Amino acid sequence: MTPLQLLFLGVFGLAAIWFGWRVFRTKSMVRSALSLLAAMVALGGMFLALDAEFLGVLQIMMMAGEMSIMAFFMMMYMMDPGGMSSMNMTHQQRPAAAVGIGAGVLVLALALLTPWPPAQALAPSATQQNHDLGIELMTRSMMIFETAGTSILVAMIAAVATALAYPQQPD
Amino acid sequence: MALTICLSIAAVLFGIGLYGVISQTNLVMIMMGVELMLAAAMLNLVAFWRLLHPHTYALQLFVLVVMTVMALEAAVGFALATQRFRSRGSVEVEEAADLKENA
């Protein structure tokens, strides 16, 4: 990895953490959806800095769509999507903070204390990556890829079936 | 060095996501926390692919699967929110005590 890549990795990483934190620290729900979008785009930037061009661009495009849909649902379902009144949207703050910090420290300790093998200096070129990923998708991992597609179909049917209005039963 | 940076950032993101899942009262905000945790997992996978096994494309495939899981989670979660909003008029988990037995 070049020093420039390391620099971008750190900058995008700090941006992802900052925006991830902002998601739960703002009163405005639309703003927190946009913060999550910014965190995901920063993550996509990290993927690009890690030479995973296809995944980085895919991440940015997918998350842009998903988070704008999320912002729409927020406006539909929230009592106070703009955060105009100072409604409290949180509960059990202290246990939540304790569990979050505890889990984060645990994962951090795992990441820092594990003796990782030495890092590989070179990654395949973007063209080579796309070619090899395509070969992987269509040969060894084909069943997994197909399963992912089928689960999308199942989730679509399940989502529509769940969201349908049903006639109210008289008590 | 790069691996340490990536794994540390992913650990912090995971912690923030877990905090959000536990502390938020709105279903959509809880889903945002889950998305953040899945994103941290994705960052770990990309870092492992690039820095440990750059020629094992099953890792990139795993990232694609996690991305699919994120989309599915959003779709099914919004469907549940829609049904909940239809029948009860709110998606606050504080008001979902009727899902509990004998409540």
UniProtKB/TrEMBL annotation, chain B:
Reaction catalyzed: a quinone + NADH + 5 H(+)(in) = a quinol + NAD(+) + 4 H(+)(out)
One Pfam family, short name: Oxidored_q2
InterPro entries listed in its UniProt record: NADH_UbQ_OxRdtase_chain4L/K (IPR001133), NUOK/Mnh_C1-like (IPR039428)
Chain ranges passing through the membrane: 27-49, 61-81
This protein's UniProt keywords: Cell membrane, Membrane, NAD, Oxidoreductase, Quinone, Translocase, Transmembrane, Transmembrane helix, Transport
EC number of this enzyme: 7.1.1.-
Keyword Transmembrane attached: yes
Membrane topology: Multi-pass membrane protein
Subcellular location: Cell membrane; Membrane
Enzyme class: translocase
Source superkingdom: Bacteria
GO molecular function annotation: oxidoreductase activity
Its job: NDH-1 shuttles electrons from NADH, via FMN and iron-sulfur (Fe-S) centers, to quinones in the respiratory chain. The immediate electron acceptor for the enzyme in this species is believed to be a menaquinone. Couples the redox reaction to proton translocation (for every two electrons transferred, four hydrogen ions are translocated across the cytoplasmic membrane), and thus conserves the redox energy in a proton gradient.
Quaternary structure and partners: NDH-1 is composed of 14 different subunits. Subunits NuoA, H, J, K, L, M, N constitute the membrane sector of the complex.
Family the UniProt entry places it in: Belongs to the complex I subunit 4L family.
Protein name: NADH-quinone oxidoreductase subunit K
Native source species: Hymenobacter defluvii
